[in-house]
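User: I'm writing a tutorial on reading structure tokens. Could you give me a worked example: one chain, its sequence, then its tokens, then a sentence or two explaining what the tokens reveal?
Assistant: Sure. Here is the example chain.
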Amino acid sequence: MDIRDTYPARGRFFYRESTSGRIIKVSKKKSFLKNYNLNSGTIQKANKQKGIPKIKDGTDNDGNYVIIKIWERDKSSDDSDLREIWRNELRQLHRLAGFPGASDYISEPKETYEDENGFYIVISPGQKSFLATHFNETSKTTPNEQERVTFWSNIKRAALGINILHSQGMLHRKVDDWAILTEGHLDQDDFELTGFEWSMRLSSKLSQTNESGASYSFIDDWKGLGNIAAKALNIDIKKLTSRNTPTRKYLAL
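And here are its predicted structure tokens:
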């Protein structure tokens, strides 16, 4: 159970669990982000309508690189939807934490927090960053043979992470280049799966429908991974799925 379910925020204070396991009361007055040395600008801009958090990076007080997902609160409106998106990611991360081997393929949070300004998830990825940022740097280059070997090894790592989710009856629902952490997708065998704010637990059915009526299934996660592979190899996904494109054209990739 999430610690905030057992010890919810009350008034100007909220409760958190210390490293020793003791429950402590913390004032909400100090902004949580003051605990970190953040870089200027953002890695990803927020989209409140879609529930997409702002993402910033920087270092902690020990100089370790961190990535922080930030769902900013709007004091003039109800923020229960934002809180639920944030809490949903926490629930999925807690659920996955106990699965043997999950930490090898799935990113774990360093810290989570709520204050009067927002909801936060802190990731300590070492030297890793989002795959999307690497794509921006390499989008015009064609991978050589060794880079393709490394990349397909990374795709296997991502597939193992997705398989762990599915084995727990969970759908990721947003497998894209913002859901992968890596030091370098063409030279490091290190993919980690992240971005579980839209994950959902699957019922006994083979697909699940959300509140808007959209249907999701395991195959959608695999399609997302396929799109990542096509993007990394500079393949036009429309041509790849076209019946007019010879399959042999892509067999050497």
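What the tokens reveal: Helices lie at 3-6, 80-97, 131-138, 145-167, 218-232, 237-240. Confidence is low (pLDDT under 50) at residues 1-7.
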